Predict the structure.
Amino acid sequence: MSTEYYSAVIETVLKLVNKKANKLPSVSTIQNWSLERGLLARKQIAETSSSENTTLHSEETSKYGNKWGSFASSDQHGYYLLLGMRDMATKSA
């Protein structure tokens, strides 16, 4: 989804609960959030991937003709971390 539409999505969701925002984030603010989100995610993965006995999990599901794959890891302490989800052509993709 393009960052130009995020404010409109936020506004629409708020309408569903009869709320109105005083101020919505600009496109540049949303793009900065996206960069920060990526950096934080990489830092978290780096911290958790150093554990011993880490297991990588993957799962694929279909919904309305689309296939989605999810990827996660877990360690010996039972800490489960969702790494991401992707739209996939097939499970073997």
